Amino acid sequence: MRLGLISDIHADHRALLRALDILAERGADKVVCLGDMVEKGLDGDRVVDTLREHAIVCVRGNHDDNAVRRHHEGDRAANEPLLGADAVAFLESLAGERDYCWEGVRVVLSHIAPGGVDEPVLPELLPKRLKRVLRGYEADLVLLGHTHRPMKARHGDVWFVNPGSVAGSRLRDSHTCAIVELPAIAVEVFSLHDGRPVALPSAEPAP
């Protein structure tokens, strides 16, 4: 199974369409979105519509939560339109975490980290709180977003994979998507600029 990964779209509809095209060209069987679909860009409603049209499995990110709050409070940020009611209802319906078993691999989807941990997972760093949380999980693979940094790292028997950000307008954005092949947990990351594979650092988190 070739599982397509997207995250941190940040209301960039053009980049989302580009990512979906690349993943289709690369033979993705299914696509999941790891949160932060909206905010920072102008096309949040179109992004949500496209994710729904493609029946993409999604989890809610911190910016998705913020956009829902802003909608209900009428809090309009400069140069950012408020989301429509349909998009808000979709975001509100999403779980912050989901788990599956695909090809015999136990997979957890989250945005920042599982178990409500709000500290980012980096190749060189696994939050101490998350180490404790993982003792109660039966997971082989955790799929994450949030950092905008593509990653494949391992802690004990659990792999952590981040496709980076679909968004590409800011300096910290990676403008990438990824495919993880199951059950091998082989990861390929692709640039949205030219569709080519990009180097993926692989590191063991610090103990």
UniProtKB/TrEMBL annotation:
Keywords: Metal-binding. It holds the Pfam family Metallophos_2. SUPFAM superfamilies: Metallo-dependent phosphatases. InterPro entries: Ap4A_hydrolase, Calcineurin-like_PHP_lpxH, Metallo-depent_PP-like, Pesterase_MJ0912, Phosphodiesterase_MJ0936/Vps29. Its EC number is 3.1.4.-. Its cofactor is a divalent metal cation. One of its GO terms (molecular function) is phosphatase activity. GO terms for cellular component: cytoplasm. Residues 1-182 form the Calcineurin-like phosphoesterase domain. Belongs to the metallophosphoesterase superfamily. YfcE family. PANTHER family: BLL5683 PROTEIN (PTHR42850:SF2), METALLOPHOSPHOESTERASE (PTHR42850). This is Phosphoesterase. It comes from Nannocystis exedens.
